[in-house]
Each structure stands twice: as structure tokens, then as C-alpha cells.
Amino acid sequence: MTSGDFGYRRVIGAIVVTSTCIAQTATSGGYGVAGELLPPQWFHLAQADTSIDPKVTEDESWIGIEFSDVTSKAAKRNGLERPAGAHVFEVAPLGGAAKAGMRVNDIVLAVDGKAILDSNDLEKSLDEIWPGRTVRFVVLRSGRKTELDVTLGSLISDNLPAAKAGDARAMHMIGIAYAYGRGTRQNFRKAAKWYRKSAVLGNAASQLELATLYVDGDGVPKDHAKVVRWLRKAARQNYGRAQTYLAQAYQSGRGVEQNNKVAITWYRKAVQNGDGLAAVNLGLVYAKGTGVMRDDAKAAAYFRRAIEHSNVAALHYLAFFHWHGRGVGKNKNEAARLWRLGSLKGNKNATKMLAKFNIETFDAAELQRLLKVLGYDPGAIDGRPGRKTKSAIRQFQTKRGLAVNGTPSLQVYGSLLIAEQALRRAELVRRYELEKAVVPELNDAELEDDLDLLE
User: Fold this and answer.
1) Per the domain annotation, does 64 fall within a domain?
2) Is 187 part of any domain?
3) Is 358 exposed, middle or buried (0-12, 13-18, 19+ CB in 10 A)?
4) Considering its fold, how many domains does the chain have in total?
5) CATH code of the domain in which 12 resides
6) 356 — phi, psi (to 5°)?
7) Which of 130, 144, 208, 416 is 20 to 30 A away from residue 358, measured at CA?
8) Each residue's pLDDT tens digit, 263-307
9) pTM of the predicted model, to two decimals?
10) Domain of 381, in residue numbers
11) Domain boundary at 175, 204, 233, which?
């Protein structure tokens, strides 16, 4: 679970566990920014990878779901050859998705006829839809495709009646509208009012948001002790992002006595709850030896786990480890692959490394290799895309729902990299299933832990 319940940085869709996730691509110098492990600042409310316009904004659409990339396990459970689409892991009762019959664990495969490859694809599709429009979703549910006509609503109008009636989740959504100026003028004081009402009723997402307001005194007096108080309340409800921020508070000693041991404990809890930012920060803890013995192998394992939870920054760190042979075998080709993937996903450090080491952002021979790995016939892998390579690209584009032109491009290369990453996860699942057949005493929990730590 990530912070911001149904729309932390945008109300048109939902929290996407990608990169995003909140704060992974942030540029502010505070907490939540992977890579700046121990700055003396607090994280900031507006640290997500978008600016907030304080003026009145147009009312934006809201569907009311949280979604992430599809894991290999979910793909197999639904009869998919490899991970594809976006996995819905929470549905807001008042949103358009719930009204149309969407359920938790549905996998979104298409929106208005456009194939959805991953959570980023769904995010982009939702960005183009405005309130009142009805769109057709194709979802996979227990292995069967289902079509749902979803009418996107408005964040405020859909939630205000229930919020006034005492619904904590609806109160939280109104808080988001005021905090981020979505469909109304930005007003931190009103945001704090609604977050507090919801937080007192036990809503962990509001407890986290209220904590962030106390960081810089947005709509409330600046108060580090209250930051920690509300973070702790949300963290005790196993809210992953709150656990991560609480770990960072203990790591820096702001609002609480500095304690690396406690910080690491909260990081580990957050990782168990699927927070990619916690995984990458815990990787940095082991890489730097902060409060623990330095252990590059563990650091690399946590970076892999962060990548499994779609943390883009972790691509850069694992690439760095491969380039220098820290904790993993020295493999500059793998480092280049990870940096390319990170650059395609918007990680500035990855882009800088490509330039620093004169690595081409697009390698025709690597594109041919990827096509072959994914089961397409590109002909000779010679870096000179010919008729066979272009035919293979057209087949790939057709299967993935991309524009079909057969042209080698950075977009095709990026889609191939993402598809290969998904294939690697699927192969890893199969390998562990074979191991379990040979060693029956291995249990699923142990296997899942190992799966998260390995690529």
C-alpha cells in the first residue's frame, strides 16, 4: 500500500505503485527521495513528481481505484503467459469503478480499445479522460475477460455528501481535493480539517497526510512531534509508506530520538508491506553501512526487491552495482540495460550515467536480442535491423497493442525491456516451483520472500 489512498498526486486515477510511486521521482531535497538517504530535511507534502497549481483548477475526473503492475504470480493465477495490464488492489466504494462493478484483484487489460501493458499505461490513459465520460474497460477476473462501462466522476461531488455524513474515506478524498487544488482552490487549512476528521476515525491514509502537513506547517502549526505521532498511528496499521517515513524520522532524529536500529525495523516492516521506497532506502542502508555492517549483497537484493515494487530509482542503484561489481557479478551490459530502462522511466541519474559512460540510449543489436528472448525471430543479431527484424517488431507491436509500423525505435526498445523484465519474473516463479517440488518442506512464504529478493 502506498500513501495517498485513491489519488495522492492525482485524483483522476489512483496511486500507481511505480515509480512512483510517491516521492520516487521527487526533486525536493527531503524525505522520500530515494538516493538522498540522510539529508537533515523532512519530506515535503509536494514531493511527488508533479507541481501543484495554487490557482483554481478545472475539475478533474476520478475513477476511485488503486493499481499496480501485475506480478508473475497474479498473471499465472489468471492464465496470462506473462505479466500484462494493471492489477487493481483497492476500489473506492464511491468511485465510478465501484459503481460499474470493478473488483479488487481485477486486471485491467484495455481501456476504450487500447491495450494496457502496465500500470504506467493505465495511468496515461486515465490522464486523458475527463469527468462525465463513460469508457469501456476490459478486465480479467479469475481468468475470464469482463467488459465494464465506467463513468468517471468528480472527486469533490462524488465524495462530499458521504464526507458530511461521517464517512472517513470520503473525508480523506475531500482533504486531497483541498490539499492538491483538484477541482477547487488549494487550501491547506481546509485540507487539514478534513484529514483530521478522517484521521481521528482511524483512516491511515489521512493520518499520513496530516503528518505531512505538520512537517512545514501547511494549514497547521509546524510540529515535528505531531508528525511522528500521526506517522506512528498509521504505521501501526501496517501502512507501508507511513512506516517508511517513520523509519526516516528515526534515521534523522527529527521529532524523535535518533535510532538506526528502530529505523531499520520500520523499514523492514514497510518492505514486507510492499513499499518500494523502503526497499531502496534499506538497500542504501546496507550499501553505506548505516547502523549495520556494510553488506553489498544485501543492498543489491533490496534494490532488486524495490524494482519488483516498481521503484525506478532502484534501477539506477542496481545498475551502479553491476557496473562496479559490488554485491553482484561485474556486468556492464546488465548495468547498461538497467540504466536504459531507468532513463526510459524518467530517472535522471540513469540518464546521466548513460552519458557519463558513453552508453548509447538505443542499441539495435540489443533490440534484436530482446526480440529473440521474447520469442520473435529478428534474424541475425548484427545491429543492422533488416526485413526479419522489422517483421518481428511488427509482430511484437501487434501483440502488445502498439502502433504497428515495424520501425526500430526507442519506444519499441523500452517496451521490449519492460516485457523482458516481466518474463524474467515469470521464469523465476517457475524455477522456484520446481525447487519446491524437489524440496517439499519449503513453504510458500519462504519462496515469496526469496522471489522478492531475486531477479
Assistant:
1) yes
2) yes
3) exposed
4) 2
5) 2.30.42.10
6) -60, -40
7) 416
8) 999 999 999 998 999 999 999 999 999 889 999 999 999 999 998
9) 0.66
10) 362-455
11) 204
